[in-house]
Amino acid sequence: MPTPEPQRPGFVLPLLLLAGFRTLIDDLHAELARQGHAELRPLHGFVLQAVGADGTTASELGNRLGVSKQAAGKTVDRLVALGYLERADDSRDARRKLVRLTPHGLDGLRRSAVIFDELRQRWTETLGAERVAAIEDDLRAVTPANWFRLDIPGWFTG
Amino acid sequence: MPTPEPQRPGFVLPLLLLAGFRTLIDDLHAELARQGHAELRPLHGFVLQAVGADGTTASELGNRLGVSKQAAGKTVDRLVALGYLERADDSRDARRKLVRLTPHGLDGLRRSAVIFDELRQRWTETLGAERVAAIEDDLRAVTPANWFRLDIPGWFTG
DNA sequence: TAGGTTAGTCAACGTGGTTGACCAAACCGT
DNA sequence: ACGGTTTGGTCAACCACGTTGACTAACCTA
């Protein structure tokens, strides 16, 4: 029978998950900065993803990101100022203001996707494809299923 | 030969790492709240860890956390107000002010460690000890070695 | 048409971070 | 022993991101 593994302290697991996440995000934004998107902050990538190619409204964006509509509105303001998003009136509902990606925003979103693929590829070169897939599958198994509705910002600040 | 796995989009990996981390941290603080530490925010746990049983100074704390000494000082202020930390004069260097855990702070730190161990145990019940250890080992392999000097807050806000 | 719901905005505030400026204490080379 | 530099702490102003509460305008429906 195999010698029992010594007990590992529980806090290294969250630290390593955070370290892995941060490494990917930091590498992503370092490369994005090189490709002409230096002003994009980590949060902004998630926002662009949540807006999507079809656009949304500020309230719906708040829902997707799990924050208030006011917070979503302010974030949209900043990304509009940076040239990543634009607002347009909805001809069928004068209350709504559509939030859409500008060409610059779409460019940032597309580059993010490419870079993320490259970074995952780099992980498979050190770990092998099976190990990376195993990490993903295992994490899916221990993570609430509803998590993937992009429930992201604001959690750390509280 | 095995059928080649279809390419997985790169962005699910960071999302799952974040989901795993957040799940652990959220569960930790839900349990901490039940055990009388409802005011502890996610950030505070790292700060208590960084202060440690021996105490430090605000500047050194800033180094450990990777933030400015001013930011560290403000966070210490808040945790002093909450009763988790206390300041004391250094008899050998009148400039320094030692930051120490109060009994309440030490209690929170000890409970965090216990709860983290329980949470890791819960993961091994669904995944098996080998898979959890494999996640840790794999993440160590793709994460900068210097990461473990607790380089944590402020990265998301940027 | 009146009454309720929904989208957006404004204001005030809290938290966590940044830089720059400053003082007092400590250290160090002459 | 003294004078210049380094170090620790604090203050002030500011920024990013979040919250709640209050309010208006537009839409929907009984």
TrEMBL record, chains A, B:
<dbReference type="InterPro" id="IPR036388">
    <property type="entry name" value="WH-like_DNA-bd_sf"/>
</dbReference>
<dbReference type="Pfam" id="PF12802">
    <property type="entry name" value="MarR_2"/>
</dbReference>
<dbReference type="InterPro" id="IPR036390">
    <property type="entry name" value="WH_DNA-bd_sf"/>
</dbReference>
<protein>
    <submittedName>
        <fullName>MarR family transcriptional regulator</fullName>
    </submittedName>
</protein>
<dbReference type="InterPro" id="IPR039422">
    <property type="entry name" value="MarR/SlyA-like"/>
</dbReference>
<feature type="domain" description="HTH marR-type">
    <location>
        <begin position="33"/>
        <end position="132"/>
    </location>
</feature>
<dbReference type="InterPro" id="IPR000835">
    <property type="entry name" value="HTH_MarR-typ"/>
</dbReference>
